[in-house]
Amino acid sequence: MTKHEDQILIDRLADAAREGKISRRSFMHYSLAAGMTASAATGLWTSSAQAAPKRGGHFRLGSHDGNTSDTHDPGTYVTYSTIMLAHTFRSYLTLIEPDGSLGPDVATEWSASPDAKEWTFKLNDKATFHDGNKVTANDVIASLNHHRGEDTTSAAAALVSDIEEIVDNGDHSITVKLAGGNADLPWLMTDYHLAICPANDDGSINWQSGMGCGPYRLVNAEMGVNYELERHDDWHLDGAYFDKVTITVLNDPNARQTALVTGDVDAVTQIELKTLALLQRDPNIEIDNVPSAAAITMPMFCDTAPFDDVNVRNAMKHLINRQEIIEKITFNTATIGNDFHHSPAMPYWPDDIPQNDYDPDKAKSLLKKAGAEGLSTEISVADSVFSGAVDMCVLFSEQAKAGGVDISVKREPNDGYYSDVWLKKPWCVVQWGARPTPDVMYSLAYKADAAWNESHWQNERFNELLIKAKSELDDSLRAEMYREMAMLAKNDGGTIIPFFPNFVYARRSNVKHGPNLAASWQVDGARGCSRWWFDDA
């Protein structure tokens, strides 16, 4: 062989080692035949094969935020443990890759009409449900329709409200027809509610059985407690390296961390930040600290006193010392927020908007204007919202005293927090997962008729801009619209955003992952169960 041919063979051998498709003996044999020395071949094997994902083993994950009221209905997903579970046993049209780009899932490719009002998705003919049935266009259409219509109870209804029709093209593809252009539609399809489920004869979906077409098959589920899964060998994508996966809900951060240290679980979500430095000293533990587009919000009902007065809302925004909270509560694992739900990790971030600073004197002036001097109010929070959530509210309460405001902190039960407190109590604390674009976030949480309009905010100009921005294909004009929307939310809205948290989670040192970790959700975009592997499997 020529030197060029030898190099081609060596490159192919390295690729095969990385993909786990060749044994060490065969690798060494062919490398030597290609002219490599034994030491060079050994070094190439070490650098290639040790980084290769290995199949096998039983992966045990300890997850925060699970409720016994959770269900398999994708329209009701809200807790992190159900989001984690959904990405483990169900699939979506598209997905967010570890590097943050948009990738294929059940859809292999997609294209739009020039005005972005029609999108065609070609479906993967290898995608199968766990019972062996092929995923069809009918299944995809029924899965999307589950979130549409006047009778839907789905929290994702606002995301798909612009869809007028979904057409089966008869060639294993579908076309989504919209009332107006939406340049972000393929990104929107990554939303965790829009899982692909098998269709029933009447056009509804069979979500009750827990059937999916994702990397793992659900074997047993005790909602809000424990989930057992096995690999789906006919999964249509790469990954699913573990033989089995168990997701155990451990809402208490100390219980999660203890389970990790003792080896009862292989990885945990959302570690206790107060003990981060101690955990980092354990040689058996690896910490993943990932800047994210997630957000901590403190929504105030804009239609409920005292927050129905914009002066009170803005006073509260100036009574929180965000920098002190980041230092003392997150231990500097966060980015400062500015009261509009548009993370610096998203496109179109308007970095020139003035910061809402801690200013008790300004807050006093606003409260005087509202006739609310000496205000007393209550905020609800639970430990499961994020590590240090209750401590943050206690610190905020102390900070607000400088403005003459008495904030009572009500510690709510972890179980049922998102079903019994969020969207029901007039002021609470929430953790939002990352969303890929401003349109998705604003449509979910700020749009006037959104099911998750957590602050009950109504702003006619904001809603007008939301419609215009999603169909605008000129990036500079779109950026201007999102900036104006951010200003409206900051100056008139009912949501305090203290910070954008890093995703800080941990795993045993024998659990490995690729060079990038998705910033969309904890544990590699909630896909660690299918993307990670044991190095000693």
Structural class assignment = alpha+beta
User: What percent of the residues sit in helical stretches (DSSP H or I)?
Assistant: 25-40%
Head-to-tail CA distance between termini: 37 Å
- Strand composition percent: 15-25%
Radius of gyration, in Å, reads: 25 Å
Major sheet: arrangement of strands: 8-9-10-1-11-19-12
Question: What is the β-strand count?
Answer: 21
The gross shape turns out to be globular
Overall pLDDT metric: 93
Residue runs with pLDDT of under 50 for 5 or more positions: none
**Helix segment tally:** 18
Instruction: Please give the largest β-sheet.
Output: 7 strands, mixed
Give a description of the structure.
Helix 1 (3-18) packs parallel to helix 3. This protein has a 7-stranded mixed beta sheet, sandwiched between helices. A 4-stranded antiparallel beta sheet has the order 4-5-7-6, with helices on one face. It has a 4-stranded antiparallel beta sheet with strand order 14-18-13-17. The protein has 537 residues and is an alpha+beta fold. It has helices at 3-18, 24-33, 38-49, 80-89, 137-145, 185-188, 253-262, 276-280, 310-317, 322-328, 360-370, 389-400, 417-420, 438-445, 460-471, 475-492, 522-526, 528-531; strands spanning 58-63, 94-96, 102-104, 107-112, 118-123, 163-168, 173-178, 216-222, 226-231, 244-249, 267-268, 285-290, 295-299, 334-336, 376-381, 406-411, 430-432, 495-501, 503-508, 511-512, 533-534. The longest helix is centred in the last third of the chain and has 18 residues, at 475-492.
